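Run log, item B.
One chain of 245 residues. Sequence copied directly from the ordering sheet:
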Amino acid sequence: MASSHATPTADASQSIVRLSDVHLTLASTAGPVNILRGIDLSVQPGERIGIVGPSGSGKSTLLAVLAGLERVSGGQVHVAGADLNDLNEDRLALWRRSRVGIVFQSFHLIPTMTAVENVALPLELAGAADAMQRARDALKQVGLSHRETHYPAQLSGGEQQRVALARAVAPRPALLLADEPTGNLDGSTGHAIIDLMFGEAARLNSTLILITHDEALAALCDRVVRIEDGRVKMIEQHNQTKAAV
């Protein structure tokens, strides 16, 4: 696996992600649960960011906030040209459809649709007239042209994740989010998926933010953000210089 390019110069005004004092508190039968506790984070266009931390630290919740899938309890959330706090659910869905691609650990393919139909679906929902052709092109980019008409159950885990990656990148998103994208794959298959993911992000000039427990994978990123107890504890720069937060 390899990722080699210059890290963009930090400039908050040009950030594709800008989080300021983000809090998220959820109700429970035992009382309020503080998931995120004052997250500050700025990400520049084209950066590769790894988010790591122990289970329950708030990593997946943070990714959901970036995708507009979770509403924050407090703080500012600016992502890919939008103030997410100002968008209602319909506008969030439209924004997400055109600006954000998401790759999940569990693939989330529709079992009754073929590979190409799974990839084309979000494009069709966005009204793209060339949805099927773009879906075929995306599958070709991940090496699955020969599997276009196969259903998820007919594909291996690695092939299903490649379909999921093709679906995420087909709209050419400004921001690509990945939540443990190799968690359900063996080592060699996982490495191949990561190579494809980094390659597609570079080809599209998309910003990549991924959650991982794999330190070797995180080390490929320009910066590694370490989360503990809902807070950013440390940010490691691409040259491995560590900055305590």
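Observations after the first pass:
- Residues 4 and 73 are 37 Å apart (CA to CA).
- The first strand starts at residue 17 and ends at 26.
Flagged for discussion on Thursday.
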